[in-house]
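Deliverable D5.2: sample structural annotation.
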Amino acid sequence: YDIPTMRSFFDGWKQMNEIYEGHAMFSVMFESFPRQGVRAKKDDATAYPWRQGSDHFLMMEAGSKDHTNAEIYDQFLSQYQDAWIESSGYGRLQQYINYGHGSKDPPEALYGYEPWRLERLRALKEELDPERSFNAYQPFVKYLSA
């Protein structure tokens, strides 16, 4: 983790919690965990994209009672998402699927930037979910309205 980015983030996090106290709550979670099992598989064995990288995950979120200031909260989180990406050493957004921001982030950030990964997932989706029942959370297939 980049210390100046962390310091700036926590200063901003504290300020946002103070400004919006009682209306919103800002939270952050850092995760680091052993990766030897994930790295033991070949990179192309599954569609999981971050086998050889992303040793640390960061989740930032804002929870509020209403959506009055949602744009302000989103701007704050997006600003720091960009700062973390810039200081991460990865050069681009790499996300764990449960932490994605579906309205902003490209599917490649969640599922991998190599085209074959999304192609493989989309083929499986078509085979296993032809009725399109499961497409609400972090969709990687865009359907046209019927």
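Annotation notes: The longest strand covers residues 24-32. The longest helix spans residues 70-88.
The annotation will be released with the project's public dataset once the embargo ends.
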